[in-house]
Amino acid sequence: MVIKPTFQSTKLGKIGGSEMIMSHGDRLLKWYPEKQVQCPLCEECPDSHEHLFFECPYSTLIWQDMKKRIKKDEWSDKWKEILFDISEMPCNNNIMSIMRRLVLAACVYYIWTERNKRIFSNEKKDYKEVLKDIISNIRFKMASLTVKDSNMVNEVYKQWKSP
């Protein structure tokens, strides 16, 4: 039997030091292992955080593009590994540190928003449209940054300026 989640999420616990939200899909699978809740993005796999970030074919396409933009191709596509990796990196005002945080936050926000729109509004966007929204959001946030002029800053701005 395949069912789709219809309620908002609730707080559940902590993973890698950050608060995790468990969707009703995750909770339903825990309570009723015989029932399957499909991912609203790919409609193929069970809905879970691990799948949504970034094992789902839909979100993987977005994540792969963003990893290239911040030169982190070696980053995993597994949620827990990403959280661990980013928690081990310095969190400072270095442009690359800022970009890592902006990219991860924007990916999570826009993918989660797309998931919710599909569940609650029956609206669907192609991954390329979501990717454009993420890039636009990051460019907008970059425009508000006050940074020292350096080769790294210039390289980052040059790369994100191009389409």
UniProtKB/TrEMBL annotation:
Keyword Transit peptide attached: no
Molecular functions per Gene Ontology: RNA-directed DNA polymerase activity
Keywords carried by this UniProt record: Nucleotidyltransferase, RNA-directed DNA polymerase, Transferase
Residues in Reverse transcriptase zinc-binding domain copies: 25-63
Superkingdom of origin: Eukaryota
A Pfam match: zf-RVT
PANTHER family reported for this sequence: REVERSE TRANSCRIPTASE ZINC-BINDING DOMAIN-CONTAINING PROTEIN-RELATED-RELATED (PTHR33116), RNA-DIRECTED DNA POLYMERASE (PTHR33116:SF84)
Protein name, UniProt field: Reverse transcriptase domain, Reverse transcriptase zinc-binding domain protein
Record lineage: Eukaryota, Viridiplantae, Streptophyta, Embryophyta, Tracheophyta
